[in-house]
Amino acid sequence: MSALTVVQVGPGTSVQDLGRAGFSDTGLGTAGAADRGAAALANRLVGNRPEAAVLEALLGSVTLRSDAHVVAAVTGAPCPVTLERADGRVRGAAAYEVLTLAPGDVLRIGTATAGLRSYLAVRGGLAVEPVLGSRSWDSLARLGPPPVAVGDLLPVGDAAGSWPLVDAVAPPLLPVPGEPVVLEAVAGPRDDWFTPEWRTVLTDQDHHVTPDSDRVGVRTTAARPLVRAVAGELPSEGVETGSLQVPPEGHPVLFLADHPVTGGYPVVAVLTPAAVDRAAQLRPGDAVRFRVVG
Question: What is the rounded CA–CA span in Å between residue 131 and residue 104?
Fold first, then answer.
């Protein structure tokens, strides 16, 4: 079996696929790629089936050596990519470019220049050992193939499918530097737990991402908090990816891929799937504007 050897890697790099759905009744979330759109695009570029596992790299910063002929592509947060041939030749590459690696070639993915998470797909997918039907690492449950470390072998699997019908795929539009990232959300299910001004507080000011954000959720802070209209505590209930759960201090926590399956704080709104992908690319300090679309 062909494989990639991890030569260098930063913290928070893991293998991810579509996740392990169907276990919420046991308290286990789906997990999977935080930016599902970027992961799907990487797989499409190399002609993989949607379920193929990819590498999710936090801020990029990973180096891999190939022991076979491998087709690869990098998507998500833009980062410098270089390919060092076995004979010493070095060529620059680009995100969203389909690359071909020969035995002994080294692929270097540098630190992301914007965004947070980059995705590497290889044709055939990464065939690390699955756990409960998924190759995703769940950071909350501490379940699945562990985060990638130097010296790991990442086998290449057989999840190749048909090639895309177009010669090139346009990358998604990136946020404009210095401007807030706009995230669309649908109101509810517990917006009635807040004062009538909740929409204005949520949408008419910048919310900033705090440093204690991760794959479980993005924590925010703002000048004005949301104010509860209902006293008491909400019994724990199911929560979805993209939920804006509001703890007592009134600043929303945006649930990402590794979120718990239940929560006891009211959810004022839920992000659209496209907005969840954008939220997965937020860095600490980034400004966010919410837009209620329903």
Answer: 30
